[in-house]
Amino acid sequence: MACYFVSYNKADRSWAEWMAWQLEDCGHVAIIQAWDFVPGSNFALKMDEAAARADKIIAVLSPHYLEAMYTQTEWQSLLPAIPQARKVS
């Protein structure tokens, strides 16, 4: 099955966890900060590892996500991991 990285803002953690549970219930692997990033670990490194490991990335888009200080950097840093984002027209 596929491996999904769920990107979210802390205000949307309950939605992100619900999505991750649904994915895992279907037999997929879900990578989610709340479950897989150990407090005190290098956040940027964990993000890079998650992006490299994931087949798909799901962003929990909300006003919180779009207005947060770090999430824009987070999803932009994930773009190189998406094959379609690497294609040049």
Automatic annotation (TrEMBL):
Q: Record's Pfam families? A: TIR_2
Residues covered by the TIR domain: 5-85
By its UniProt entry, which Gene3D superfamilies does this protein fall under? Toll/interleukin-1 receptor homology (TIR) domain (3.40.50.10140)
InterPro entries in UniProt: TIR_dom, Toll_tir_struct_dom_sf
Question: This protein is called what?
Answer: TIR domain-containing protein
